[in-house]
């Protein structure tokens, strides 16, 4: 069985761009990756319940519903294990009306059984710019201080998840325009757990 790598970071940190680069680099090196987006899996499960929502509306659902579909998504993703490296694209926490909901609570971590946790970070100014420029998503507008707090909260949550899962955690910087470099670093880490 291939390893499961959780690739996480605050919204707007540039995970999608890094994942695109990572997939290309892995393909060139003949490393088979399977990438799955946790939020998209959750949305698919909600749609099966005949609910019409956009992905960013999930965080407005009741906490009980969010936790249930979160665990269902983890169970579905865990069935995707195979010989490929499974890369799970997710967030360390979700801002809800009730507060920050962990993106990887203990039951989800146990289901996913990660081998490695990678937290992507970027400068708060870059994140704020990306968030405001992303017309494809319904992101909350936040002050720069809120973005800095998101980064700190993500870092602390990643450390707690690494302890709970008993796996290493690494922080990768995604400097503006240097996602290829970040992807190379991530691929080097993945090679250590294959």
CATH superfamily, please?
Answer: P-loop containing nucleotide triphosphate hydrolases
Q: How much strand?
A: 15-25%
Largest sheet: 5 strands, parallel
Report the end-to-end length measured between terminal Cα atoms.
Answer: 9 Å
CATH topology description? Rossmann fold
Specify the overall morphology. Answer: globular
Strands, total number: 7
Low-confidence sequence ranges? none
Number of domains: 1
Mean pLDDT: 92
Q: Count helical runs.
A: 7
The helix/strand order is EHEHHEEEHEHHEH
Strand order of the largest sheet: 2-3-1-6-7
Helix share of residues? Answer: 40-55%
CATH class category label: Alpha Beta
Can you give me a brief rundown of this structure?
The protein is α/β, with parallel strands linked by helices and 194 residues long. Helices cover 49% and strands 19% of the residues. It has one domain (4-193): P-loop containing nucleotide triphosphate hydrolases (Rossmann fold, 3-Layer(aba) Sandwich).
Describe the structure.
It is a single chain. This protein has seven helices and seven strands, in the order βαβααβββαβααβα. It has 194 residues and is an alpha/beta fold. It has a single domain (4-193), classed as 3-Layer(aba) Sandwich (Rossmann fold), CATH 3.40.50.300. It has a five-stranded parallel sheet with strand order 2-3-1-6-7, with helices on both faces. A hairpin with a 2-residue loop joins strand 4 and strand 5 (99-102). The mean pLDDT is 92.
């Amino acid at each position: 069985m291939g390893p499961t790598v959780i690739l996480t970071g605050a919204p707007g940190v540039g995970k999608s761009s890094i994942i695109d680069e990572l997939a290309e680099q892995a393909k060139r090196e003949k490393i088979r990756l399977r990438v799955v987006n946790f939020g998209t899996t959750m949305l698919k499960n909600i749609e099966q319940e005949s609910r019409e929502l956009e992905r960013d509306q999930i965080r407005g659902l009741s906490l009980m519903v969010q936790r249930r579909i979160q665990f269902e998504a983890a169970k579905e993703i865990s069935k995707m294990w195979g010989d490929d490296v499974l890369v799970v694209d997710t967030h360390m926490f979700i801002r809800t009306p009730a507060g920050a909901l962990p993106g990887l609570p203990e039951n989800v971590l146990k289901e996913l059984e990660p081998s490695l946790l990678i937290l992507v970070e970027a400068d708060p100014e870059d994140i704020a710019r990306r968030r405001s420029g992303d017309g494809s998503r319904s992101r909350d507008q936040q002050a720069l201080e809120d973005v800095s707090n998101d980064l700190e909260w993500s870092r602390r949550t990643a450390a707690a998840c690494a302890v709970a899962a008993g796996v290493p955690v690494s922080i990768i910087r995604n400097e503006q325009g240097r996602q290829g470099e970040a992807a190379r670093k991530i691929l080097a880490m993945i090679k250590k757990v294959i």
